[in-house]
Fold each of these.
Amino acid sequence: MTIDDKLKQLGITLPPVATPAAAYVPFVQTGNLVFLSGHIAKRDGKPWVGQLGKTMQTEEGKAAARAIAIDLMGTLKAAVGDLGRVKRIVKLMSLVNSTPDFTEQHLVTNGASELFGQVFEAKGAHARSAFGVAQIPMGACVEIELIAEVG
């Protein structure tokens, strides 16, 4: 089953690459590595605003992280042409807009990690970091960046 078949089976349609909101590019490839800029959580095409531990709970944050994973795959497809070229999702870095006492950033980030595992299977197993931060651009609840190896 191809990656496109898996996405279709999961009912996922990949979005086009979003226009950068500042002075950066959506992705850069060097050698076999593709670095994707941070993507913020969006709902209904707008920043998914919230702070974990204050206005949002872990499950909603996890859904936001999953939504980011879908956006990241759209950008990755634009970068490499065919997601079948992905040899490995190498690393995710997740920033979670959270209160000082919120400690479930890792569980929020699972929303993205689990989807990459479903779609890419063993190639989706990755290293990652999950941080709690005081704020994210536009008040978004989560931001995730990605590094992938392609063949």
Note: The radius of gyration is 15 Å.
Amino acid sequence: MIYVTETISLAEWELSESFMRASGPGGQNVNKVSTAVELRFEAERSPHLPPQVKARLKKLAGRRWTNEGAIVLQVDETRSQARNRDIARERLVELIRAALVAPKRRIATKPTLGSQRRRIAAKSARGEVKVLRGKVDDEE
């Protein structure tokens, strides 16, 4: 079990991990040991997540969300397979916690009269500067 909050925890059957060889530094270790981790979380089928959270999670996951409704995270930051597993699970938990927070509704407001007047004054001042850049008439 992975505990996200006091009320939400993920079962092991919802997660699947596969290991592959990582790219980057590591010398001969890179060619021999499969340290990179691909963590797959079946978010769409998860009974532990409410529908609103699943919708927000889909937006937050972006390209990591598959057509089957799973989130795929790939980690190959360290040379240790165990550490990469921990990092992948931490990232999944952070992503789900971010999806749990409902965004605030935006309250539409009108600009103040003073700000409108300052904006118009700034526009007219800018217009005057541009007029002064024009051609000079020969009045001789």
Note: Residues 54 and 75 are 23 Å apart (CA to CA).
